[in-house]
Amino acid sequence: MSTTSTPSAVAAPTRVPSPAVVRWTAAAFAAAGVLWALFPLLRPWADKATVSSDELATAWASDAWVFSHLAGITALGLLAPALLGLRRLVADTSDTRGATLLTWATALAWIGAAGASLYYGAEIFGVRTLAEASLRRGDATFLEEVQALREQPVAVVLFGVGLLLVAAAGVLTAIALIRARVPWAWTGVVLAVGLVLVLPQFFTPPAIRIVHGVIFGLGYLLVAFAVTRLGARSR
């Protein structure tokens, strides 16, 4: 009597991930973590309630204002490429339970970061332009337009929805790593916490935002380490 083999419900890994994919994925996570941690550390925290209009305008017109916000934008922008690399690694070295979730996480991160970056652009260059005009003309009324710029309805919606999508991407990433049983899967939880708190932390004092930057950066660096362990296990 002949017998036929029953295919496994979950396909075994058939490929070994490219070392280049491992390196670039880990580098993307690590770079994003460092850049977001630098965002609140470099950002001028001049408070219009406690400083003069000239001091506030000087802070908003400074290079530190531009560089810190560019660091934040870049950190969010690196999330989707990093997740794309992580998806490739999980698909190559594990079963498919986590790869599908990471596909969705990558898409959400890309859309979310794109929406949020539009607001960041206005925050960087719009606020700086108004501050420079205030200093150049000696007219503090230009600074009164900053709030109107920040509260523009379409920009606020894009920013809020974008960061909610980024938060959802973080949650899906954590679930994907746990389901795929990759080494150090729990690091995805730290990453998710940092991403979920990105939007709320904008409404907190500077000290809390700096702490969040550290948590965010730590989550990214831990996932970068998990990526290297995943590549080592496959070899």
Describe the protein.
There is one protein chain. With 235 residues, this protein is an all-alpha fold. The protein has one domain (20-234). It is built from nine helices and no strands. The protein has helices at residues 19-42, 53-60, 63-93, 99-137, 145-150, 153-180, 187-196, 198-201, 206-234. The longest helix has 39 residues, at 99-137. 41% of the residues are buried.
Largest sheet: none
Specify the number of helices. 9
| Helical amount | over 70%
Coarse structural class? mainly alpha
How far from one another are the termini? 40 Å
Overall strand count? 0
Unreliable runs = 1-14
Mean pLDDT: 87
Measured by DSSP, the beta-strand proportion falls in under 5%
What is the H/E string?
A: HHHHHHHHH
| Overall radius of gyration | 21 Å
Bulk shape: elongated
Number of domains: 1
Summarize the structure.
The chain is mainly alpha-helical and 235 residues long. The protein has one domain (20-234).
Secondary structure layout plus pairing:
Blueprint: H1 19-42, H2 53-60, H3 63-93, H4 99-137, H5 145-150, H6 153-180, H7 187-196, H8 198-201, H9 206-234
Helix pairs in contact: 1-3, 1-9, 2-4, 3-4, 3-9, 4-6, 6-7, 7-9
Question: What attributes does this structure have?
Answer:
235 residues; mainly alpha; 0% strand; elongated; disordered N terminus
